[in-house]
Amino acid sequence: MDTPAQLDTLTTAGWASYALLDSGGGRKLERYGAHRLIRPEAQAMWPPAAPDWQAEGEFTGGSDEEGGGRWTLSPDLPHTWPLSYGRARFHAQPTPFRHLAFFPDMAPQWDWMLANTRPGDEVLNLFGYTGVASLLLGAAGARVTHVDASKKSVEAARANQALSGLQDAPIRWLIDDARAFVAREVRRGKRYRGIVLDPPKFGRGPDGEVWHLETGLAPLIADCAALLAPDARFLVLTAYAIRLGAHALASLLGTLLPPGRIAAGEMAIREEARGLLLPTAIFARWSGAGAGAIPGVAGPVAQG
Fold this sequence. Notes:
five-stranded mixed beta sheet; eight-stranded mixed beta sheet; globular
């Protein structure tokens, strides 16, 4: 079992389409392109740098555990608007789940996967949501299989593909339950050089399948291990579950995946006002014999 000696922190700095401007008092002020919005953030326990925030929308109410809440939006805020990262363009949109239809703290993971991807690599993106990772990998020449149980999410991903001008990128968009799809791929003897997983804490498949992270993750990782090619390059796992720790994710990969290098830790966004780090998620990632030199944590591959 390969266990990381210490936990890492993957830090997202702002880029042209996104920035964490200020945080504190249980909230965060973010810039998405030209628009500023406020969202709840329980981990921002410190006071904000500025006493008053000007924004075009705010999400209030609900909780991380139970969901709920609602947006209050300016009538001047567009329903959707385009953002970009590298060669991917995608629509930002306030959703009932309090986020903007993508996760900006994934930027260092996108960079790392791109550094370990070569043209023609088969890559599997599970719980792929609106497809930013799939588009970046597809633009790099990978043959991507994108799986998500939500028809709306896959439709949004296809719209982002058109927005990016990547209609010819080798990406398969599938509406399917991740566990069922992976089990079928194992039976087919399929192999991938890269696998990405961003599973929710709870979810339902297209046919009513129920997903619980704590009980479903280990069997899913075991099946993913069977899908890794002998010269596989990477497996990236991120989780936003409060009750799990990064060491737990590292131990899970270390016990179920082939020998390789494992890194794990926290993901965080750097606030522009004071440079504070706001934690957002935990991660663990495995790199196999097919991976090249593992680059350090860096800024965006391209600003846009």
